[in-house]
Automatic annotation (TrEMBL):
Keywords: Cell membrane, Membrane, Protein transport, Translocation, Transmembrane, Transmembrane helix, Transport
Listed transmembrane segments: 6-24
Subcellular location: Cell membrane
Taxonomic classification: Bacteria, Pseudomonadati, Pseudomonadota, Gammaproteobacteria, Cardiobacteriales
Organism: Suttonella ornithocola
Gene label: tatA
Protein name: Sec-independent protein translocase protein TatA
Purpose: Part of the twin-arginine translocation (Tat) system that transports large folded proteins containing a characteristic twin-arginine motif in their signal peptide across membranes. TatA could form the protein-conducting channel of the Tat system.
């Protein structure tokens, strides 16, 4: 019930005859560059998200600077 290799070959020959080899090559190149651009933007988006999480984590942490004195020293 599936597509046989001979049917795929016939479809490929028809597509090459209709569009031509050069146009198919350009379509493949354009598709490849679009996929690369998409992957690059996804990576940039993930890096920005990680950087924003680090900044938020730093803002949430608190630093308390204090000097500790013993009870005996304060009475004196």
């Amino acid at each position: 019930m599936g597509i046989s290799p001979i049917q795929l070959l016939i479809v490929l020959v028809i597509v090459v005859l209709i569009f031509g080899g050069k146009r198919l090559r350009n379509l493949g190149s354009d598709l490849g560059s679009a996929i690369n651009g998409f992957k690059k933007e996804m990576k940039n988006n993930e890096e920005e998200k990680n950087q924003q999480e680090r900044v938020t984590h730093l803002e949430d942490s608190r630093i308390i600077d204090a000097e500790v004195k013993h009870k005996d020293e304060t009475k004196g």
